[in-house]
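agent> fetching stored inputs for the S-adenosylmethionine docking request
agent> found them:
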Amino acid sequence: YLFGKKRATDIAHMVWKHVVQKGDTVIDATCGNGFDTLAMLNLVADDSHNGCVYALDIQKDALDNTSLLLEESLNPNEKQLVKLFNICHSKMENAVPRNASVRLVAFNLGYLPGGDKEIITRSKTTLLALEAAKRILMPGGLISIVVYVGHPGGREELEVVESFAGRLCVENWICCKLQMLNRPCAPIPIFLFKR
Ligand code: SAM
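agent> prediction call returned; pasting tokens
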């Protein structure tokens, strides 16, 4: 099943399904055009309209695109379960209530497809955001990262993500990456499971 998936984001969505439960609180740290936000909402929303997705992006255009996609795809009750924030993901703790149990923090790094390619995630703030995600993630939760290496700065960002993952305590974290060995520039899904 895994190897039938062509895109790194599809592989990430498949892994999320095995971790996220109805009623959960999750964070889309780079909501972009909203496809990941919508996939998360479909995992967390239950019949009583519990569950919550905090969707963050540094670009207003991205939040507008996400909002439009949600408008087209969800009923008003479901849409209310998504909270949009125009902030840097390193500030995610300002968006999420202090006592929230966060099951998933997902990063889809790089630039907004169809948008300004100069506005990309940067290693320094990505690292700060990973540290914030580590602080707020519940046991049994997942930090999911899709890293793009085809644009300038992408390889450096991959190194920063790998180095962060490599320092996580082996007793509490299972960290893995899925690299396409015959597609050297393919996006790389990385999963950090907290025991
Ligand atoms: N998840 C999105 C989707 O499903 O359409 C795609 C995300 S796109 C590859 C990367 C996004 O990260 C862009 O929309 C960009 O504006 C955003 N971004 C860049 N730097 C950021 C930061 N420091 N904090 C939050 N978002 C950021």
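agent> quick read of the result: The first strand starts at residue 25 and ends at 28.
agent> awaiting further instructions
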